[in-house]
Structures are given as structure tokens and as C-alpha cells.
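Q: I'm writing a short explainer about Alpha-1,4 glucan phosphorylase for a general audience and would like to include a description of its predicted shape. Could you first generate the structure from this sequence?
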Amino acid sequence: MAEYTKAQLTEMITGKLQRNFGRTVDEAAPPHMFKACALVLRDIMSRRQMATDNQVWEGQQRQVHYLSLEFLMGRSLEKNAYNLGLLGTLKDALEGLGFSASDLFELEPDAGLGNGGLGRLAACYLDSMTTLEIPATGYSICYELGIFKQKIIDGKQVELADNWLGLGDAWLIPKMDEAEEVRFGGKVEDCWDSEGHNHPEHTGYTTVLAIPRDMEIAGYQTRHTNVLRLWDAKSPVPVDMSLYSRGEYLKAVEQQAMAEVIAKVLYPDDNHYEGKSLRLKQQYFFVSATVQSIIRKHRAQYGTLRNFHEKHVIQINDTHPTLVIPELMRILLDVEGYSWEDAWHIVTQTVCYTNHTVLAEALERWPQSLIQTLLPRIWTILKEIASRYQRELEHRYGNDTGKIANMAIIWGGEVRMANLCICACQTVNGVSALHSEILKKDVFHDAYLARPEQFTNVTNGIDHRRWLSQINPRLDALIRDCTGGDAYLLHPEALQGLEKYRSDKTVLKKLADIKHDNKLRFASWVARESGVVLNTDAVFDVQVKRLHEYKRQLLNVLHIISLYHQLRDNPNMDFVPQTFLFGAKAAPGYHVAKEIIQLINSLSAQIDRDPVCKDKLQVVFLENYRVSLAEKLIPASEISEQISTAGKEASGTGNMKFMMNGALTIGTLDGANVEMHQQLGDENIFLFGLTAQEVVQRKQQGYHPMDYYQQDPVLKRVIDQLSAGFDDHVSYADLATRLLYGAGGSPADEYLLLADFQSYCQAHDRALRVYGDSKRWNQMSLTNIARSGIFAADRSIKEYAENIWHVPTR
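A: Of course. Here's the predicted structure. Afterward I'll give you a sentence or two in plain language.
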């Protein structure tokens, strides 16, 4: 039973229109109606959140603080209505007012406050923490411009600004009275009191105000409500009117502009000094504001910080928030007057670290000169942490400078954030079983041997209520019919009940019909958006994720080129129709990734023009891949490409979303694919390629991609095609060169595309043979859905709560 009736919701919406926008329903445009609905739901969540706050305060409960520079929230109106149990009622109310609910949902911009999997995971985890009634707060920056809008012009990626706040700010509650001051620059001098205690004086600094803009997070079937606190940056200094009156307009607003640029854009390019400086500012800005905010509330409740670590746990989501460690030390030492030993005890019992990557370039290292200039007091604390840790390492390893250098926090003029986490954090976890083993055996091997109890694993998970029930309503209905209700929404393991229908022809037929309808619906959306007509009789083979060389979109392209050559050679061959769908954004400064996007579009255009390929082979690059596009695409997908070089992908969560919606995976034994394979067995997944161990061995033995090129005529022809280019006369010779000879300091074929090419092609052949047997394909699809419950975020969060945070769950 919904808490509000259609009549009540209608009255609340019309009231908002009148009070906030001065409009009647007849005068309201869709943006007014969207904002009115958002404000109504926000009011409901705000009341619940205040009650949750009181409950947590009175119960003196331990709180979780989840720090992440990315939260890829997507759209919120439909999601919040769903979690509040008001989705049907809201749709009815809107229809009664003469508005289309689906059109209003489409109107909302994605809150693109993240680049990819890291941010989407954080959003899923917030949903689960709230649903499981864990007192938790997420913290990030209120980026004015989220991840860029991608436009494809002449086959190339062009980045456009993504100002999501026009409508998106309806969800945000500014709290000026909870602003915090963050200090940059200046100098620090040691001052000693009569008792010999040091009181560092920080002078000459610039202050930036951090203003909280809170987004309420509703849980599913619970009144418990948490918050995502997004920090906005403002200058405390008003505009200098004397400069303004002298006509020096830019100088008059300079201080404001310098402060506000911190929250202007998500992750600036950091391949130049200004970008590095701004990114470091962003990281310190958000952790400093966050720690001050947590401490202010804690002190108001308990009057002391001696019990801080008993009442709070701070989870660092990747290395970006690592400066929370010296910042918490700074406050405990300088503001609270604690001894180093007491402060360090509190910090190390409070902070935990999730590692998301084994890629060296993603384990952040900052030039010490930059930290010295920008954060002088933080630098002195970092030096002290580093020197104490160094002495500990020297005591442990004696003269083994190799191990000391590997584990040091400050070395060679750089500050290594991952090593700081290893030194200070209570626990360190990877995000899949394979990834956590690689951390222990390779990336942090010496640290693991010294403190094995510090290391653990929590395999990632997804919000199955959003990524199955909400985005795939007909599949949701089938699951409810087969498993006896909606129990799976809170107990995802109940999906296992589907498996007993593996030989039920009626259920398999319904599953196939649902997939086909989803394909038709997605094709209709693509046609409206771009004019591209998808062949819905073809198998939908999908690779969507950030464009990075290790994710090997290029391997997918090499295979498609080989298929194109087959068709050109033998137009009348027996050929299973295939539509390859790509969606990916490349980092603005990542030249190779952007070139691969151009290559996909060149190939797409060539195949589209060639009559030989009509109704047989199609390649489509989906522009501006984002959460809301994924929600339409994933239910329609049939083959999921999870083909990263084994040992490179920490986990992946897209692989779980596809599995949960019945797509079958072509994948390497990498990241969470390993655990998917454990659930599915060889017979329900299409594995190929080298294992992580074999990748290491191949490189140690000396890897020579030219051997594959010379010995495999199919591969040779494909690589030669890259060099020659296509009908648009664009050559991709430099991509071919990277594969065969290496370039820019990278070794030849760094991610072993050529070594895995033949195995990859064979996996496709196996998949297409099964696709021709619809009964077997649908059985495999049903099995994938039935065994996907273990990849729900609720399971992940329960593991964090039990093993790392030590907080109870619902």
C-alpha cells in the first residue's frame, strides 16, 4: 500500500507548481512539472532523513562515511519514486494532470558526477547502504559540469560541456550554515609554548568556502534515508567594488573565480601542471571539508574525539580521497592538541581503503613540490608519517633498499598515495577475488607479507533493483511469476528459483519474447535519437565501457574487420546476422583511445555503405554513452563483451548488469568474470584468451607480436587493413605500429591483442553456433539470470558491514 494516494500526490504537485513557480497546471511547461515532482519527493525524503538522523544520534550508532571523487548517479526521479514505493502513483498523478511520466523521466539530465565504473559503483553502494539501514553518508564534489557530453563529428570525439544543474539542482539542498573553510597555500611556522608543545602557525593562506549541497538517498522499502553530501566551492571574499568601479572587472572577480573553479568541472586533464594543481586542490578541498564536517557533528554529540574511531569509519574509494589521512591528523594535532601517538591511533582505527586498479598510472603519485606549495601543513605531516614509516621499514628490512623504495610513501620527489593508504588504513580490499590476489601477490606483496590480516576482498556488486527490476519491467514480472513474488528485490539469492524452469518451454519462450521486445524498443529509441536503423533480427553484440587500451575495444574491431573480409570474399556464405554496438567516452587527453573511436566510426561507415553487408553485418557507435543510455541498452543486449587483458580489470560491474539481464558473456578470465565463471561453469559463458598467470609468463618469456602477424594470414590481412585505412582515406597505421612495434615508450602490443585474437574469434564462432539453437541459448540466458544474485550490491555491502565497518544491517 503506497503511503500517498493519487489525489494526495496530485495536490502536493500542484501546490509546488503554485508556490515555487507561480504556475497552474495548465501554465506549467514540462521542466516546471519535473521540478515540482522532484521537490515533492525531496520533501518526503527530507522528513524521513531528519527522522533517521535523530535515530542515529539517539542510538549513538557507528556511522559510515564513503568518500569518492565520483558518484555517477544518473537520473533520480524514477529511481526515487521506485524506492519510495510511489512510482505507479506518480505515473497516475502525472497522467491525470495531462503529462506523460515517461517524457518527464526522459527530460531529466544524468547527474554525470563520475567517469565510469568507479562512480557507478559508488551510486549502487549508496542505494544498498540505505536499503540495508546502515547510517551512511557519501561525500564528493558538486561539479557544475559533469562528465562531458560526447559528440561525434566526422567520426571523431568532440567534448561538450555537460551542465546538469539546470534541472538536476532540484534534488540538492544547500546548507549554508554547515559551510567549512578550506585553506590553500601560505606558509607554516613552528611556534612553541612554555611547556615545550609545538603549535604550528599557518599564515598567508587563501581560504575557500565549502558549501554542502545535500542529495537525499531513499532506500527500498524502508524509511531509513541517507545523504550524498556534495561540496560546492565559493570564495569568502566579496567582489572588490573599488576595482570594479575603476573598470578592472576581471581583477574584481578574480578571487571568486579562483575559488569556484574547484567545483567547476569533473577531473580536469592532469597532463600539465595547472591540471595537476587543480586536481590536487579538488581532492584536498573535498576531504578537508568532509573531515571538518564529521568532527564538528561528533564533538557536538560527544564533547571529545577520544572515541572518534569507535563511532566513525571512513572508506576511501580508490586513492583520490587519501589526503583524508593527513587532514584528520592535522585537526587532531593542531586543533584538538592530541599527541602524535594518540592522533595516529585514532586515524589508523578509522580509515579503510578500497583499491580499484592494478594499473601503475592510476596509483596516484604527486610531486612533493606541488604539495609543499599548495598544502604546506599537510606536507609537514606527510613528511613525519613518511619518516616514521621509513624507520619501521628499515627496521623490518635492514639494508634491502629495493623493498624500502617500493613501499616508501615519499621517494624520488613524489608522494605515493597508495603507499600512504597501506601505511595508515585499518583494512585494504580489492574488488574481485582475482584482483585481491594480484594485490597480495604482486602490487602490495611486501605489505601483505608484513600484515596479512590487513588485506581482504569484497567483490563488487550492482543495484539489482535499478539494473534489473526498474529497467527491465517485463523480465521483473516474469521473475515474480516464477519465484512467487518480489522477494528477490531484498533477497537477490531468490533469483535461483528461476533455474527450475530451465526446461520449461513456456518460460523460455517468454524470456525470448521479452528480449526481442527490448531489442525493438531500443532500436526505436536509437532511430529517434540518431536516425540509425538497427537490424533487430541480428544478434546484438555489445561492448560499452570507458575507452582504454586494456579494455581492448580494438580487439573487438580487429575481429569485426576479419568478418568483413569473410563477407567480401564470399558474399553468399552462411552468415549469422550481427549488430555490433559500442559505447565509450575517451579521456580528452588520451590520444590513442580517441583514435580507436574514430576507427570504429570509419569501419561503421564502410560497412554501412557496402551492399554485401546489408542485413548481415552492422557496426554502430552509440554517441554519449551514459547511465540513462545503458538503462535502455542492457535489457536489449544478447552478447556482452568483457574482453580486457587478464589481470588488468579489477572487477567490472557492467559484466554483472548484462548477466542479470540475460546477455551471455564473451570474456577473459579477468576481474569478476572469474567469479561469474565459477557461478556459471564452462557451459554458460564463452571464455577465451590467456589467463592472468599466462599473461605474466608470456611477457617474461619475451612477447613477439610480429610472430602472430606473420603466421596468421587472417590477422595479417586485418592489421594491413588498419594501415591502409578505409574508404574515408584515414590511415590507422600508427595503431598498427603500436601493435607490431610499440610506440611512445609502450611495448609492442602491450595488452596482447594479437596473442588472444585467434582464441577470441573462436569464442565468437562458438557463441553464434549456440545462438542458432534458440532453446539452448535461452536456457543459458535463464541460467545467467538465475545465478546472478550473488553480484547484487546488497551482498557486497553486507560484507563491508560485517568484515570491515563492523556495523549492523537490516
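A: For your explainer, you could say: The mean pLDDT is 95.
Q: Perfect, that's easy to follow.
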